[in-house]
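Practice problem: Sporulation protein
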Amino acid sequence: MRVVIAGLCFLVLFLSPVHLMYGESDSQDTWKELNRTSDQVLQLVKQEKLEEAKQLLDYFQTQFVKADYEDRKLSMTSLRTVTTSYERANQAVTATNMGLDERIRHVTEFRLVVDAIVSEHHPLWLHSETSIMHALTRMKEAIQTEDHQGFQHRLNEFLNHYQMIRPSLTITLEPAHLQQVESQVSYMENFRMERSADEVENHLNLMEETFTALFAQVKEDSADPSLLWVMFTIGGMIIASLSYAGWRKYKGEKSKVKVKE
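Answer key — structure tokens:
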């Protein structure tokens, strides 16, 4: 019985969608290389190796031109987003009077955009959930304690976090969903000084609900179907094995009763 189960498990793993994809296309290899390159650029900027980062950005540009945009189903809006983010990253590594934190912020934005295109499952920008939600909580705390200066400071922190992931959202989200998020953030930014504390707190509650639903939905949508397939298949095998064992036990006990009779 153990040999049979082991054999079935091997077949499940071997025949799963991951293994059925025996070889990757040149297009997939190109996009993965672009993703790795964007990560290397970010690491170099963090180490303040700006000349090397610039060389890699130049390499990225040449490779990006060769990429198959149809393979990623990129819209013109997505292409403009990548281009704009690339230009900001390029400026970040060439500017002479930009602080390190700002350089890192611009290149991180670029890194997240590229990953949002390449990663079909769980894009990197989802890791910003803690920072975004924590910033919203601190804004509410500042409003509740009537710390107006602290609120403005927390709002600026939130906007910095949001602006860093915003280009990635334009790639991942449907336009209507993006517009909902954008309108709520813009309202808070534009009317920060013109609304009562109660109005601001109510709007922050709405933003918390929106961003909580946003992160949850993208996590659900980006779940790897191949892993779900394996889980369901193995689960079915386990149930079948237990049913078989129960049937054997029942048959054995029934035979014992007949022998006694």
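Discussion: Confidence is low (pLDDT under 50) at residues 1-23, 224-238. Students who identified this feature from the tokens alone can consider the problem solved.
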